[in-house]
Design brief:
heterodimer, A: about 350 residues, mainly alpha, Amino acid/polyamine transporter I, globular, B: about 350 residues, alpha/beta, GMP Synthetase, Chain A, domain 3, 2 domains, 9-stranded mixed sheet, 4-stranded mixed sheet, 9 helices, about 30% helix, about 35% strand, elongated
Chain lengths: ~350, ~350
C-alpha cells in the first residue's frame, strides 16, 4: 500500500466484513424462523438481488474514480445530514448488538455501557487513522475470520443430521421473497460506506472486479454454510428457541474429548466483522463531514468525537442500553438500511438526469 | 505509549476480570436428578466442591422452579453455582409426563452448555443414585459412551436431541434407564413414554432400535439355529427408508461371526448362506416386532411418522402405516477358527 493508496484485495476484505457483519447477530435467527429449511433458497435469491443492489450502491464510485464521495453524489444540506444521522444509527445498531451479545453471554455482571464504551473507543481510534490502516486491519481480521470459519465448519460436519434439512419447500413463497429482499438489503447496505474512497486510491484496478466478486461470493458462502451447519446440527425447530442460533450451534464443537467451549473462540469471527464495519462506518462519517463542510482536520476530529458521544448517549438513553431480542428488532435496521439505499439511489438518478 | 495504554485498558475491561471467580468459591454441578411432586420440583444434585481437596456433596431441595432450587443449593453451600460442567440430567416419569417446560432453565441460561446427557430413573432408585464416594454423573456418561461405541444397546440422549424430539412432530423420546443393584449403578434398558404409556425395550430390542435408526456403530446379536445359537458382531449397519403408500425399510449389515454353536459345517459356503439367511430372518422379525410394539403402545419412538412427514409432507397415523422390511446381512468373517 503506497501513499494513501490501497490494493484491491484490501478493499475487498472490507466488503467481506460489511456484507457479513449484519448477519450473525441480527439476521440469522430471523432467516431460520421465517424460512426454516428453505433458508438456503432464500439466501441464494437474496444474494442474486444483492449483486444488482451492490452495483447500484457502487455505481457512482465506479463511474467517477477520481472524485470524492461529495463530488460524486453532490448531496445537499438535508441529504448530508440525513446521511450522517442514518450512519450514526447504523453504527449504534451494530455496536449495541455486539455489546448486548457480549454482555448476555460472557460478562453478565458487567454493565452493557462499559462494553459499548470499549467498542466505541476501539472503533473511534481506528477510524482516526487513514484508509491504509483500516484496510490493513481488515485484511488481518479477514484472514483470521476465514480460518476460524473453516475450523468451525469442519468440526461441525460430524454433528450434521441430513434429516434435519427436511421437509423442503414448506415455506410460504411470500415469506421467502420478503426474507430474500431483507437479506439483500442487509447484505448490501453497509457497502454504502465503501463510498468513502475514491476508486483511484486502489492502485491495482485491473484486479478490482476479480476481488470484488471473490469476496462477495466468499461472504455469501460463509453465511450459507453457517446456516447449513446450524440447521443440519439441531434442526430449525430447536434453532427457533434461540436468539443466536449460530452461536448455540458452535457450542456443539468438542475436540479430543477435552477441548470444550470452542464457541468462545469461534465467535471472534462476528466480533471482527462488526469491528471492521464500525471502523469504516465512522471513517465514512468523518470523511463526508470534512469534505462537505470543508473544515480542518482538528475541527473534524472534535465533531467526530462529539458525534461518538451522542451515539453513546442515544444507545444508553434511547435504546436504554439494550436490544429487544424479539423479532421486532428487524424493523429499525431495515428502515435505516432502506433509507440509506434510497439516498444512494437518488444520487444515482440525479447523476443520470444531469448526464 | 498510546498503544500500550489501549492494550492495557482493553485487557482490563474486556477480559472478564469483573466477573472472575476463584475455583474454591464455586460449586460445580455435575448431575441433577429432577422429580416433580405436588406442583414442585424436587431436585437432588451432585455437586463438586473444592476447598482443601475436591469432594462431592449431595443436595436435596424442592421448590417451584429449577432456578429457585439451584439458588437454594448456592445458599446452602455458600458458593456460586457453576452449571457449565453438568454431565447428567436424570428424570423421573412424573417429570417426563407432566407438561412442564423443565428444560427452559437449561435453554435460557447462557452458562448452560447443553452438552449433557439425559436419563430416566424409576422411583425405587431415586434415593440410591448419588453418593459422596464417586462422581455418578461422570460414571453414567462413561457407561453410555462405552456402550454406544461397542454394543449399541443404549443411546446417547443429549439434551438438545431430547428438546428436538419433544418439539418436532412425529417422534417420541426414548431414554436410557438407570438401574441400581447392590449399590452398583448400570443402564440396562431403554424406556419411552407417551402420556401414561410406558414402553420398555429389552437389550435385543434396543440393538434393533439402534440399527433401524442408523445409530449402531458396533452391536452383537445372538441368533437361534435349531436348538443352538450363534452370535454375530454387526458393523456398518445401514437402514434406508422409503415411503410410497407403504414404508419400505432396507437394512444392510456387515457381520463377523463372534461365536458359533450350530451344526452347519463352516467349511462349506452353503452354511454361510444359511447363517446369513437366519440372520436376515431374525433381524427382520425383531424389526417387525419392534414396529408392532411401537404401534400397540402408540409411541412412535422410531420416528416413522416424522420421516414420512419430512419426506412426503403427509401427517399419517402410525397405525395406518404398512411396512415392509428387507434385510441383507453379509458375513464377512467367521473368525480365527473353523
Amino acid at each position: 500500500m503506497k501513499n494513501n493508496k490501497i490494493n484491491s484485495f484490501g478493499f475487498s476484505t472490507l466488503l467481506l466484513s460489511l456484507s457479513s457483519s449484519a448477519f450473525y447477530g441480527t439476521f440469522s435467527s430471523y432467516i431460520i424462523y421465517k424460512t426454516k429449511t428453505d433458508s438456503f433458497l432464500t439466501i441464494i435469491i437474496g444474494f442474486i438481488i444483492s449483486l444488482l443492489l451492490s452495483k447500484m450502491v457502487l455505481h457512482l464510485f465506479n463511474k467517477y474514480p477520481n472524485k470524492t464521495y461529495i463530488d460524486r453524489n453532490k448531496p445537499n444540506n438535508i441529504s448530508i445530514i440525513l446521511y450522517i444521522i442514518l450512519s450514526i444509527f447504523t453504527y449504534i445498531l451494530l455496536s449495541l448488538r455486539l455489546s448486548v451479545f457480549l454482555s448476555n453471554q460472557y460478562l453478565v455482571n458487567t454493565p452493557n455501557y462499559i462494553i459499548l464504551l470499549m467498542i466505541l473507543f476501539i472503533t473511534y481510534y481506528t477510524s482516526t487513522k487513514d484508509i491504509v490502516t483500516i484496510t490493513k486491519v481488515s485484511i488481518i481480521t479477514s484472514f483470521i475470520s476465514i480460518i476460524i470459519f473453516i475450523f468451525d465448519f469442519i468440526s461441525l460436519i460430524p454433528e450434521i443430521n441430513i434429516e434435519n434439512y427436511y421437509p423442503l419447500f414448506i415455506t410460504n413463497p411470500k415469506d421467502i421473497i420478503i426474507t430474500s429482499l431483507l437479506f439483500s438489503i442487509y447484505f448490501t447496505t453497509l457497502i454504502v460506506f465503501l463510498n468513502t474512497f475514491k476508486k483511484s486510491q486502489i492502485y491495482d484496478l485491473n484486479n478490482y472486479n476479480k476481488y470484488y466478486y471473490i469476496m462477495m461470493i466468499t461472504s455469501v458462502t460463509i453465511i450459507i454454510l453457517n446456516i447449513f451447519t446450524t440447521i443440519g446440527v439441531s434442526g430449525y425447530s430447536v434453532n427457533n428457541l434461540f436468539d443466536y442460533p449460530v452461536y448455540t450451534t458452535l457450542k456443539r464443537i468438542h475436540l479430543f474429548s477435552f477441548l470444550d467451549s470452542m464457541e468462545n473462540i469461534s465467535i471472534m469471527l462476528w466480533i471482527l466483522f462488526i469491528i471492521n464495519s464500525c471502523n469504516i462506518n465512522l471513517f465514512f462519517i468523518k470523511s463526508i463531514i470534512k469534505d462537505y463542510y470543508k473544515i480542518s482536520q482538528k475541527k473534524n476530529n472534535i465533531i467526530h468525537f462529539i458525534l461518538l458521544i451522542i451515539s453513546f448517549l442515544i444507545s444508553i438513553f434511547v435504546f436504554k442500553d439494550e436490544f429487544n431480542e424479539s423479532y421486532d428488532y428487524i424493523l429499525i435496521p431495515t428502515i435505516i438500511s432502506i433509507l440509506l439505499l434510497l439516498l444512494q439511489f437518488i444520487s444515482n438518478i440525479k447523476d443520470r438526469l444531469k448526464s | 505509549m498510546k498503544k500500550i495504554i489501549i492494550v492495557v485498558v482493553s485487557i482490563l475491561l474486556l477480559s472478564g476480570c469483573y466477573d472472575y471467580s476463584e475455583i474454591d468459591d464455586i460449586s460445580i454441578i455435575t448431575g441433577i436428578l429432577l422429580d416433580y411432586h405436588n406442583n414442585q420440583y424436587e431436585m437432588i444434585s451432585e455437586v463438586l466442591e473444592n476447598e482443601k481437596e475436591s469432594k462431592i456433596n449431595i443436595y436435596k431441595t424442592s421448590c417451584k422452579s429449577i432456578n429457585l432450587c439451584l439458588l437454594k443449593i448456592s445458599e446452602e453451600s455458600n458458593k456460586e453455582l457453576f452449571i457449565s460442567h453438568l454431565k447428567a440430567l436424570i428424570l423421573t416419569d412424573r417429570t417426563i409426563n407432566k407438561d412442564t417446560s423443565f428444560y427452559d432453565y437449561f435453554l435460557r441460561n447462557s452458562k448452560s452448555k447443553m452438552n449433557f446427557y439425559v436419563y430416566y430413573i424409576e422411583d425405587q432408585y431415586i434415593d440410591k443414585l448419588f453418593n459422596n464416594n464417586k462422581n455418578t454423573s461422570l460414571f453414567l456418561k462413561d457407561i453410555i459412551d462405552y456402550n454406544t461405541r461397542n454394543y449399541s444397546s443404549l443411546i446417547k440422549l443429549s439434551f438438545t436431541d431430547m428438546i428436538q424430539k419433544n418439539i418436532e412432530y412425529g417422534i417420541i423420546n426414548i431414554y436410557p434407564s438407570i438401574t441400581i443393584d447392590d449399590e452398583k449403578v448400570y443402564i440396562d434398558k431403554l424406556v419411552s413414554f407417551n402420556k401414561e404409556n410406558k414402553t420398555i425395550l429389552s437389550n435385543t430390542e434396543s440393538v434393533i432400535y439402534n440399527i433401524l435408526l442408523n445409530n449402531a456403530i458396533s452391536s452383537y446379536i445372538t441368533i437361534p439355529c435349531d436348538n443352538e445359537n450363534f452370535t454375530l458382531k454387526l458393523s456398518k449397519s445401514k437402514s434406508k427408508y422409503k415411503y410410497d403408500n407403504k414404508l419400505t425399510i432396507n437394512i444392510n449389515n456387515n457381520a463377523i461371526l463372534s461365536s458359533y454353536n450350530c451344526k452347519y459345517d463352516l467349511n462349506e459356503k452353503e452354511s454361510i448362506n444359511i447363517l446369513e439367511q437366519l440372520s436376515n430372518d431374525y433381524i427382520k422379525n425383531k424389526s417387525y416386532e419392534l414396529l408392532k410394539l411401537s404401534k400397540n403402545n402408540n409411541t412412535d419412538f422410531l420416528g416413522i411418522t416424522r420421516y414420512i412427514y419430512k419426506h412426503n409432507k403427509e401427517k399419517i397415523n402410525l397405525n395406518n402405516i404398512n411396512e415392509v422390511i428387507y434385510v441383507n446381512t453379509k458375513i464377512t468373517s467367521i473368525g480365527e477358527s473353523r
